[in-house]
Amino acid sequence: MKKILSLVLIFILVNQIFPFSLFKFFTTTQPSIGVLQYNNSQKKTTFIGRNLLRLDFITNPLLPIQFDISLDANLLYGDFTKLFITKQNTTKLTDELMFFYETRKCYLKYNTNFADIYIGRQLLKFGEGIIFNPLNPFSKLDFTDIAFARIGVDSVRLKFPISLMSYFETIAISENFKFDNVNFATRILFPVLGYDVSFTGYHYKDTGYTSLGISFKGDLIGGLYGEVVYTSKINKKDEYTVSLMLGFDYSFFENLIIRTEYLNNQNQNLPIYNTITTPFCSSQYIASQIIFTPTMIDSFYLNTIYNLQNNSMLHTFAYQRNIVQNTDVTLKIFYQKNDITGNFQKNFNYIAYLLEFKIKL
User: For the range 237-243, what are the long-range contacts, defined as Cβ-Cβ under 8 Å and sequence gap of 24 or more?
Assistant: First the structure.
């Protein structure tokens, strides 16, 4: 306990004096503060806050053995301490102050003549979706993170190159490497008529469900991509879900990108759907994204997600500027009306902002 409190005090002191990392190869992100409104009729508002120190370390990618590590240390304020639910790595300091740390990723990569081997906690992703990604079975978005970061999964991954543009990979996934309960995933990717096509499979050993999916990405006037995934239990074929995602993006004048995505979930109300790793559980969604880079140092981002089933919505705006070499500052504004997930919150309305610094040394 004393070690944890000492780490918290050091983190608070460094966070207040130095809003950036002093260590080589490390970057930091901090902080985000917001206002959460629970009930529109009562106009009740409460304060939530989060300070995040993120440390990233990557070794030389040219070495045969490489390490990639990302660690988070958080201070959660106000009602964030009530909303943030975790089984471990949390220390409650006061009724309205909590310290939480998480290893986002920490893995070793070893390059051989026949395959690339990854061992440890990794950020894995199947499919081509930017906003909606139903083909990705690995880890949910972190809704307590204004940037919707993902946490890695403990796994062993083997990636076998077939040609310059195609490969096959197989993955064994087990939380904390408890090998008595291992989930398996596999994927093969190859080009077809100018499109990147992948076939994927995923087996949930703990629930007995299996997912099969296909994704594609290519050009048709603009960028066209999509995913289809089917999930069921072998002995319960009448209990299944199907998710379809279609996306399109187009670039204007090389500095403006417009993207839109549509997601459709069938039979999403069945118990099976709670086992699928997705933050979007309603039947239909539509999303749009605009990225504008007027100069080499300025970027603007505008995202909108609309739940067609319950009329909830999510808006994010971000402005990023490179203030000096290797140093970026980003302002993000985030607004949610009602429960965008369609899964767990009612009257969950809030507006928040994030001021983020990234320094690479």
Answer: 239/270, 239/271, 239/272, 240/267, 240/270, 240/272, 241/265, 241/266, 241/267, 241/268, 241/270, 241/272, 241/273, 241/276, 242/266, 242/267, 243/134, 243/278
pLDDT score recorded for residue 189: 95
Q: How many residues does this entry show for the chain?
A: 361
The burial of 21, by beta-carbon neighbours within 10 Å (0-12 exposed, 13-18 middle, 19 or more buried), is given as buried
**Mean pLDDT along residues 93-101:** 82
| Cβ atoms of 141 and 279 closer than 8 Å | yes
Q: What is the per-residue pLDDT across 45-73, written as a single tens digit (0 to 9) for each?
A: 566 677 778 888 888 878 889 999 988 88
Would you list the DSSP string of 2-40?
Answer: HHHHHHHHHHHHHHHH-SS--STT------EEEEEEEET
Cα Rg, the chain, nearest whole Å: 21
Asked if residue 245 lies in contact with residue 263, where contact means CB atoms within 8 angstroms, the answer is yes
Backbone CA torsion sign across 27, 332, 139, 125: negative
Residue 143: pLDDT above 90?
A: no
pTM over 0.70: yes
How high is the pLDDT of residue 29?
37
| DSSP state at residue 141 | B
Instruction: Give 123's strand partners.
Output: none
- Tokens (6 digits) for 287: 């999303």
Determine the Cα–Cα distance for residues 289 and 267; give it in Å rounded to an integer.
Answer: 27
